[in-house]
Amino acid sequence: MMDLDSAARDILAGNDRGGYTVPNGRVYPFQWNWDSAFVALGFDRFDRDRAWTEIETLFSAQWADGFLPHIVFWQDDPGYFPGPSVWGTGKQPVTSGITQPPVAASVVRRLWENAVEAGEGDAYRGRLEALFPKLAAWHFWFRDHRDPDRNGVVVAMHPWETGRDNSPEWDAPGEAIDVSQVGDYVRRDTSHLDAKMRPTKLEYDRYLALVQYGRAQGWDHARISAGNPFRVADVGMSMILLRANRDLAALAEMLGREAEAAELRALVARAEAGIGWLWDGDKACWCSRDLITGRSSGFITSASFLSFYAGLKHSERDAAMLGHFDRIGRMVSYLMPSLDPGDPGFQMIRYWRGPVWAVVNYMIGTGLAEAGEADRAERVRSDTRALIARNGFYEAFSPVDGTGSGGDDFSWTAAIWLAWN
Ligand code: DGY
Q1: pLDDT of the residue at 2
Q2: Can you tell me the distance from the alpha carbon of 94 to that of 15, in angstroms, rounded to the nearest whole number?
Q3: CA–CA separation, 120 vs 140, rounded Å?
Q4: Ligand 1 site-directed mutation target among 77, 160, 211, most atoms within 8 Å of CB
């Protein structure tokens, strides 16, 4: 295990570009939002200062209205498409125009508590005080631009915004996206990786059509959220934001920022009351739902199991989710597949249509442990460690045989190895 610990530290050091970490040098050569948050958890195990710097660098690219982009293009790189000129946000530093799952506040709470436990609270309090308003501004941006029905459910404007790019949850809503004007382009992801592990051409056409739409709106998020052809309530982002609002409220209370604490508690209460809209009674599962048609996706994905991480407590729904957990656990060697293996669309190495992702497992396991489900939490943790120990620090893994999928030497996989030991 020592060797794997040092291999994980070497991956983070090798992907460190000075103040920020790339997810993988070839496939993803910039700073990604939720990747950086998880990466900070890994750095925190051996270099606390560097962990905080990762988050501070990310927030140095925050827009004036609180929006935090999903990519910061600190330097250009021809190895990735779509690069900064395609996004055309006109920001400095150059960024994309969509956001990503808001895990940062939950990570910052963990960093802070680790610092306090190590007797370094005094040294880090100033950095926490500086980060807090930025985190709060981002959460209030979600309230203002991604929660049109004021029910605490997060509506994604792009599959990339969910972080789970090609999940089948986006297939039916994606049919409303007109791809006829997308034009020619050259993908770079499939020159680095086997196309069988990546989204399809149709999915990429949709991704680009949405980028073109946002750009045509001047990346004005009020206009985008009013007219975007893709508006899907994402169960993953909704659960993650609910958890993050709880964590940020706790930090606000600790810092004596009563006005923000009250607003964040109100957002938690709103989500607890409203998130039932994502419960699919037919599937007896938490599912994403198309805001435009009102239809549930009906897909059971790894994000469905984030209800425990969100801190939702509902005995019947929890029992149904644990039933799905046990059923899926009997079907695969390694939990948690990104799509129910009983689904006809399950593909064991295609990105978010089957593979296991260490960061999602970390959130699922954390939530299950907090809900008192110690054995199930341990199954997720030990499966994650076995996947990495047997196969390497891949982007994702087949739940069937553990085959690595996507990029290798992956920063967030290394970080979870270090943080979740
Ligand atoms: C990609 O390019 O595959 C990313 O997931 C987009 O954020």
Answers
A1: 67
A2: 20
A3: 29
A4: 160
